[in-house]
TrEMBL record:
Essential cofactor(s): pyridoxal 5'-phosphate
Domain spans labelled Aminotransferase class I/classII large: 93-461
Alphabetized GO MF terms: pyridoxal phosphate binding; transaminase activity
PANTHER family: AMINOTRANSFERASE (PTHR42790), KYNURENINE_ALPHA-AMINOADIPATE AMINOTRANSFERASE, MITOCHONDRIAL (PTHR42790:SF19)
Protein name: Aminotransferase class I/classII large domain-containing protein
Annotated segments matching region Disordered: 1-22
Coiled coil, from the record: none
Positions of transmembrane segments: none
CDD domains assigned: AAT_like
GO biological process: alpha-amino acid metabolic process
Domain of life: Eukaryota
């Protein structure tokens, strides 16, 4: 395990409390045995010179590769992303070798490894974590991206019949993966700033174990560029959510693939000049749940998917060493370990012959500028083409890739209140049907935007009298602004025309 050193400057983080967290484990996680072959393999790694005749690893001399060259943008450019896009920037070649010195030998990268990933890569990511979140007493393991890590976490904590909390609109690709495990989702209300802490508190404090089963002990949340709503949780809310999680003994699954893509950042040039990009970025990036965690209840998931490339299939999980060990055991007996070529590439990129950590953060900062430009373009075109119709509106997102577009359906001639005494707690409007119709119309016009119904988590009807039915709130589309200028202009043009036609029907 790679242990991250305690922070020097987190005076607001109380000292670590040793808590027994085993009560959160699922029955599956409790009975899981270590992979016995990996256990012996790990012993064989410890003493240099040990002759290992025990494992079924192919011999490295028979790997049909001895060198890999990666051509990447030079990080010496003032604005590396712009120079790379324009094709004017310098390039840099970083190489991995099997038989020559490099950051991570292909002998190691291409061999079977430990589920937690290679120490070299974990050390680099622990260093990055430490400089950004400074989490006391946490451990880093690699994953095959956040989807892999999340599904493993669901298995780590979820038993059939368990209830987990989530945002009322959420990344259904992942929440659906928990359903076959028998996990029920309990949606928490949101507003433009994301999950509303008081509603989380209400859900937990009013929980009735007799009628609802075990009280939720896990919160799944996407704090930055919440997928799909694009909201970013303000720091006060994060603090409040963490306190509620402590009060009700809830584990926080912090799924944060958009964390590094923040906009309108006020990065001090003097800080960059004196201390480098990592420190400068760390001072303006949002405060993560991990950075507040002193009793080990946060499992943070980071990914290279949005800041390098999704096909890398590489991410990292940061959590207390007890959970980390259990997750590593699951990996040891399933996907085995993350992608070797990806680990080789990252090692070289973050190593002394590549960008290094600070160069990587320079790239991230430059990427933020480019996505911020695209977001601004999207919002300008949106105001000009769409908002002007008075039929839809949107908040400007502070991070990530998504704009959550609200359609003012109440202005549609066929919008109806359909309250039915036969279905108390059911939808009271035909919002869902109209949105479905609009979605199909846009599709016919050659435009796909994700309808809110794709992400809506239906609550248990009748359980919460303060909640309306979620089908009355699905009058939104998720749109991304990551495309080219042309895609943004054309897409929003189609949206505006389609919307006007639909409202005249
Ligand atoms: C909120 C969220 N979680 C997880 C993922 C999956 O990320 P990864 O590519 O790291 O598996 C995505 C991808 O879009 C996402 O938006």
């Amino acid at each position: 395990m790679v242990c991250i050193q305690p922070p020097h400057d987190r005076s607001d983080v109380p000292k670590k409390r040793q808590t027994d967290l085993s009560r959160h484990l699922s029955a599956e996680a409790r009975v899981r045995l270590p992979n016995p072959i990996k256990t012996i393999w790990k012993v064989a790694q410890v003493k240099p010179g040990t002759i290992n005749m025990g494992n079924g690893d192919p011999h490295h001399t028979l790997y049909p590769v001895c060198e890999m060259n990666f051509v990447v943008p030079s990080i010496d450019e003032a604005d590396p992303v712009q120079a790379w896009r324009a094709g004017t920037g310098e390039q840099q070649i970083i190489a991995s070798y099997k038989d020559e010195p490099c950051a991570l030998s292909l002998r190691t990268a291409l061999a079977y490894g430990a589920g937690a990933g290679l120490k070299h890569v974990r050390d680099a990511l622990a260093d990055l974590n430490n400089r950004i979140h400074a989490p006391p007493n946490h451990t880093v393991s690699l994953s095959l991206g956040n989807a892999d890590a999340l599904t493993k976490c669901f298995r780590l904590f979820g038993d059939p019949g368990d209830s987990f909390l989530c945002e009322e609109f959420t990344f259904s690709a992942m929440t659906n993966a928990a359903l076959p495990l028998g996990i029920n989702w309990v949606p928490i209300r949101m507003d433009k700033d994301g999950l509303i802490p008081s509603d989380m508190e209400r859900a937990l404090s009013s929980w009735d174990e007799l009628s609802q089963g075990k009280r939720p002990h896990v919160l799944y949340t996407i704090p930055c560029s919440q997928n799909p709503t694009g909201s970013t949780l303000p720091e006060e809310r994060r603090r409040r959510i963490y306190e509620i999680a402590r009060e009700f003994d809830v584990i926080i699954l912090e799924d944060d693939p958009y964390f590094f893509l923040q906009y309108d950042l006020d990065i001090e040039t003097t800080t960059v000049e004196s201390y480098g990009f990592t420190r400068a970025m760390a001072s303006v990036l949002p405060r993560s749940f991990l950075s507040m965690d002193y009793d080990g209840r946060v499992v943070r998931l980071d990914s290279f998917s949005k800041i390098l490339a999704p096909g890398m299939r590489l991410g990292w999980v940061t959590c207390n060493d007890f959970f980390s060990e259990k997750l590593d055991m699951l990996t040891d007996s399933s996907s085995q370990h993350p992608h070797g070529l990806g680990q080789a590439f990252i090692s070289e990129l973050l190593g002394s012959h590549g960008w290094g950590i600070d160069g990587f953060m320079k790239w991230v900062s430059s990427l933020c500028n480019e996505y911020e430009r695209r977001r601004n373009l999207f919002m300008d075109v949106f105001r000009r083409e769409v908002q002007v119709t008075g039929l839809a509106s949107a908040e400007t997102p502070k991070s990530g890739m998504f704009v959550w577009i609200k359609v003012d359906l109440e202005r549609h001639a066929r919008y109806r209140k359909v309250e039915s005494p036969e279905y108390p707690g059911g939808p009271v409007s035909n919002t869902a049907e109209l949105m479905n119709e609009l979605f199909r119309k846009l599709l016919d016009c050659g435009l796909v935007m994700m309808p809110a119904s794709t992400f809506a988590m239906p609550g248990r009807i009748g359980k919460c009298p303060t909640d309306g039915h979620i089908n009355d709130r699905v009058n939104y589309f998720r749109a991304t602004f990551v495309g080219t200028d042309e895609v943004i202009e054309n897409g929003l043009g189609i949206f505006s025309r389609g919307l006007e036609e639909f409202f005249s029907l």
